[in-house]
Amino acid sequence: MDEPDEVAEFARLFNGFLERMQNPPSENPRESLRERLLAYLGMDPEELPVVAASFPSFDLPNVQLAVEAWFDSFEVVGLAGSDRGHYTFSELLEVSAHRRYGIGAVDYQRISIAVDQEMDCVAFGFYLASQGDDRYVALLRAANPQYGRPTVQLEVVATSKEAGERFLGELPALILEHNVFRGQVVSFEGHQFERGVGPFRLHARPEISRDDVVLPDGVLERVEREVIGIAEHREVLLAAGQHLRRGVLLYGPPGTGKTHTVRYLLSRLPEFTVVLLAGTSIGFISEACGLARMLQPALVVLEDCDLVAEARDHAYGGGPLLFQVLNEMDGLTEEADVAFLLTTNRADLLEPALSQRPGRVDLAVEIPLPDAPGRSRLLSLYGPGLELSPAAVEDVVAMTDGTTASFAKELVRRAVLLGAENDSPPGDAELKAAAEDLLSTRDALTRRLLGATEPAPYTPPPEATPGLAPPMSY
To answer: Where is the composition biased (Low complexity) (predicted)?
Structure first.
């Protein structure tokens, strides 16, 4: 064979290779998607209209449960082949006609639906299902912001367009009925690939009794009346034409018990859905309010909201993000049983924003530094195992004026540690030594980190307490 013939033969073989790659042989062992749907529906799926809907990324388990509740019977099948996620349902049918994709395994995504419970959710799969005399094929896909799909997507073909529209029309009520997040404590987090909501984080509901909350007389009662009292008397209030939406601001120095008070309220409202937002995650306030509105009664907790008092949100005209928070609060209907709890260490930063948006916060309550009786109660609360005399408690309470609940907690921990180092049960001597240590000049930064004010430096006596190791520095 001369050289021109060799070139021609190579070109022929190469063209055949390209044709084979573009059109796989018909003896492909996998059944094509189109063939399976044609057999199930009894008509050409490409001739049927596709109706579609999208849902928030965190709603995948709820959408799946709603879909499965609608159908009388169903089978879920997957699709084998790469890049299938880039095609719409109609495009997949068209590509499948050339046998590029065949029936394969379903893609699943394991999602937490409770603190100790997970659910295998369909991340990419076709429901071949029926409801009455109607037959459906529904493609369910999880959100995938990495590939430009920020929402859960559901695309449906049915033996009639009316059947498909009826299915999607009933779905929101079914999602609400089967919602796995009702009555749970959740927090929103950003997605790692782009701005947007990532997976929920689920939290165990605190179990805190009223005796575990140490506040000055009358403070906790005011908060309880506004948050819990309205929930307990919602029917009376509605009958009298009064609204249920309320906002409570807890303010005061760090470490005084604002978060602890919030946790107590969570334990008192076990039927409430709770959405936790802190710091910059308050940017998800729209999603949080949407969830709270859907799953009311609900409690939206905005911790350290002073961090966004001056932050700008360019998606909302560049104004302070806190304005968006307040507008979302105001956007709820008056009968919405949704409570907002805001905490801040810097009420001075919040006050201008609140005064420009009046009516969003109904009650502002200061959570102050504990007084002397409060500091005594905190020692009992955090150190039930300490053997303390009334005189020692009185001395330590006097020494710790201007300190916080966090300070008292650390004080007791150090007393227990001193007792362990000296192989003795902690008591008066250990508590005083721990107080001297925390109040010494070398622990000034520790005191500030625990939220305490800066009292006159405490100077320990020249001789160490007998039987104790020297005070520790951390």
So the answer is: 465-474
In a domain, 11, yes or no: no
pLDDT for 19 beyond 70 = no
Spatial distance between the Cα atoms of 61 and 40, rounded to a whole number of angstroms:
26
Residues 361, 384, single domain; the answer is no
**For residue 63, how far is the Cα from the chain centroid?**
18
Vertex 90 angle, CA 88 and 91, to 5°: 65
State the pLDDT at residue 201: 86
Instruction: Write down which residue in 366, 382, 399 finishes a domain.
Output: 366
Q: Do the Cβ atoms of 319 and 312 come closer than 8 Å?
A: yes
Does the residue 442 lie in any domain? yes
147-188, pLDDT tens digit by residue? 667 889 999 999 888 898 899 999 999 999 999 999 999 987
Query: Based on the domain organization, do 247 and 120 belong to the same domain?
Result: no
Average pLDDT over the chain reads 83
Is residue 269 one of the residues assigned to a domain?
yes
Residues 414, 304 share a domain: no
Q: Which of 348, 366, 384 is the last residue of a domain?
A: 366
Domain around 409: 372-449
Bridge partner list, 111: 119
* Cα gap 369→37, rounded to integer Å: 69
Q: Are 255 and 367 in contact (CB under 8 A)?
A: no
The packing angle between helices 161-177 and 60-70, to 10°, is: 120
Contact 419, 425 (CB under 8 A): yes
First to last CA, the chain: 89
Confidence of residue 2 (pLDDT cuts 50, 70, 90): low
Q: Does residue 312 surpass a pLDDT of 50?
A: yes
State how far the alpha carbon of 222 is from the alpha carbons of 76, 219, 270, 284, in Å. 54, 5, 20, 29
Shared-domain flag, residues 79 and 100: yes
Instruction: Report the 3 state secondary structure along 24-93.
Output: CCCCCCCCEHHHHHHHHHCCCHHHCCCEEEEECHHHHHHHHHHHHHHCCEEEEEEEECCCHHHCCHHHHH
